[in-house]
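hey so u asked for the seq, here:
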Amino acid sequence: MAEFVPVQSQNPVLELGPGTGPVTKAILEAGISKERLTCLEYSPDFCEHLSEKFEGLNVVQGDAYNMHPSLGHIEPNSLCAVVSSLPLISRPMEFRLKCIRDAFALMRPGAPFIQFSYSLASPVSLKSKMFSWSKTGWIVKNIPPARVWIYRKPF
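ran it, structure tokens below
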């Protein structure tokens, strides 16, 4: 997932649902500084774990399906990427689309919303006109196998 983050950009990156931090670690190792990365996590326990594991990282406790109250410090149209480990497929479609719409309000035009999924189908309807999309092949090294979906905010 981290390979799709535009490391050369100086703009901030948002990670949704970092959990215990495996994707966070990959994003940091790819070259995104802790100062540029904000992690929005629902679980207070995971927030505490992330803050201890990645000292100096901006960890925000909040709801990704209602992100604006928690992310007032992020300027609209400023993010160069959003990386999501949210279990989108488990939520109703209107929640999934709202999450992406709210993220797009914070993202620069053309920026990727990077989402992993174990599902055969896209976590959001591909009939939507609000983004262009691409996907990776199956990542069989992952157990269970997964793929990455990239939804791009239009220019």
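The beta strands are 13-16, 37-41, 58-61, 81-84, 112-117, 132-135, 147-152. The mean pLDDT is 96.
lmk if thats what u needed
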